[in-house]
């Protein structure tokens, strides 16, 4: 019978090591950015959001309303700051509204 390893580790540390060893952080960042956008922007903006995609450090957001796109373009720096604060690290450096 195999011996049991009694090195107790918190599950948080084990999951972090798993994510790091399997290079999953970029995929998790993409999911987290989508969730942050939905939570920060609210229903008014989310109703007109058709696609959210993170490529490297640029967030591409496709909107179905040209008026809303124009309004949001005035506050891109603030949106980037809010997203990064919500994520807890600087992931988004540029925001492109389509």
TrEMBL record:
This is DUF721 domain-containing protein. It comes from Winogradskyella alexanderae. Pfam families: DciA. InterPro entries: DciA-like.
